[in-house]
Amino acid sequence: MKTMNWSILVGLATVLAAPPALAQDALKIGLTGALTGPVAGTYAPAVEGLRLYIDRLNKAGGVNGRQIELLLQDDASEPSRAAANAKRFLTQDGVVMLLNASLSSTYAPTIAEAKRAGVPLLFTAAACPPEVFPPADPNLFCTTAFGTEYDSRAALNFIKETAGTEVKIGFQAMAIPVSRGEIDYAENLAKGMGMTSVAKEITPPPAPDYSPFASNISSAGAEWVWSWAPWGSQIKTFEALRRLGWEGNYLAWAHLEAESELERVKDPGFYVLGANALFAEDLPVMQEITDAAQAAGAEYPANQMTEGWIAGMVIEAALASAEDPGSADSVREAMSGLSVDTKGLRGGSLEWTEENHFRTQQHYKVYRWNPESEGIETVSGWTTFDVE
Amino acid sequence: MQLAVNILVLAAIYALIACGYVLIYRVSRVLNLAHGELMMLGAYMLVATASAFSMSPVMAVVIAALMSLAVGGMVYLFLMRRMTGEMVLAAVLTTVALGILIRGAVILIWSAQQYHPRAMLGWGNPVITLPGDARISLYAALLIMATVVVYGGLFLFLRFGRWGMRMRAAGQDPLLAAQRGINLHAVFALAWGLSTFTGALAGILIALDSGLDSTMVMIGLKAFPAALVGGLDSLAGALLGALIIAAAEVGVIRFIDPLLADVVPFIVLIAMLVIRPWGLFGTREELDRV
Fold this sequence. Notes:
heterodimer; A: alpha/beta; Rossmann fold; globular; B: 290 residues; mainly alpha; two-stranded antiparallel sheet; 14 helices; 2 strands; transport (chain A); Leu-bd (chain A); amino-acid transport (chain A); signal (chain A)
């Protein structure tokens, strides 16, 4: 009798101590990202934003009553570690969606692993690979703000509207393929628009001193500079130019750090062009992100989490509209016809079709520091490009 | 003139970092491959002290530099000391592991975001206009001055200082030095402390000039060819090596192709290894030991 009582107690304890049934039904999503390493500053804040979004979603009941389990693995931008992470997510954890938030060198192994397992791969905070543009690879998707070639078209259009085509323009890139490719494209485009390209500086990642590169741009007489590179390279080249007494205008891509850097630099000749709205606009969704970051005691500023928050919105929409969110095939099918309201974080909804896994429209805004109002101002409202 | 200023600034950065490689190698024959990480750690210490001593910026810088000196000494006492008597390769691999540990710790403590210690301290970075309309930032000028002071101080210290002479003796013949009563562990700890201090000084000044993130570790690696070109056991060599590497790099950026900036230090290094493997001021005897 005593033995039976103990058995009942042990059985009861086991049942009580067991994780809730919901945890077993949780939808697993695996993210391999550059959470450490030299470029972590570009990716880690976005990943934190995504984590906060998923936490908030789970607290609100998850997607159709099912919790989402976000599995994070650091790849430190190393392809071999990204491949190992992807393999683990796909073979051991049984994820229904794989995410990549890392350097482009990690793309090939993660694409191969996701394809082999038949699990959709979403690039978030990482540069969108060419395969997501029309005609898109059925398995690859991207939410990241910047889009190659469209960014330079928007940038040069802005310079043309502001200064005309009779302008001497310089270019700045970092010595990584994606940055160089974009700046080569921009240089040809500028020439086609009648602008005079006077300098193209490709800086190493990183340079101990950016003055030698800035000297070339300055002495070439550039009136405008278009820079499309990791943030550190963009801002350090600009600051080196100013130290040399250069008085031209500098247009840079609005990475995660852009907002706090505009406030730090306080230079009206320093413009940033981007596809994400800055927190200076104080939209309700931005307050939501700020509240979530404060409540969680976030490591990074809320205004660097937009990319991750948008990825969270897209993941929620994809899982909610999938017939069977526990099936990767079903999730992929849902992703191939998705429309997500970004609540003003972007210039419009993020829409994917069978053929287009980047977005059907790409919107851009330009901001700069206004010394008179002592705040960030919008220089150019949303400009829209159809993605074909 | 601006070209000369650019060369001088870059040379000062490389020289200040390279002297850390030389100090440790000269005394203990260990190639410290964690030097870039220790340099970065020094700069992050400024971030910590800038928050703690925001009312006294100078104090924050001094304390960060002194903490680096202490960290260098502790790295020897708690880690590298255990490598004494082991193969040099084991010691070198230990420094690799140390570097990985520091990189991880920095991300854990300070995250991956960019810091601007100068703004934290409330300092500006005025531009100084030189003859010939060349311009240099205040912190770049301070970097050049710091390099002159550090190399001058080290020259005097090693030539005339009691502990400097002990360091030279330990480097030349550790067994004989120990038999003459020199405390080798104290000498090695001092070398590690001074090396980390000079590296951190470079890191702090670079961070004050242009900000700080975890990519700084790669700058430490870029200074390595300067030490090798000059000869790993020679401070004068490190100074000249830094000047050669900087002149080649800035010259290539200005006159050939900026894209080559990253590879030119290593091209110079390969050329030196082919012509004179022991470096400009290194000795054949040192190479034989390696």
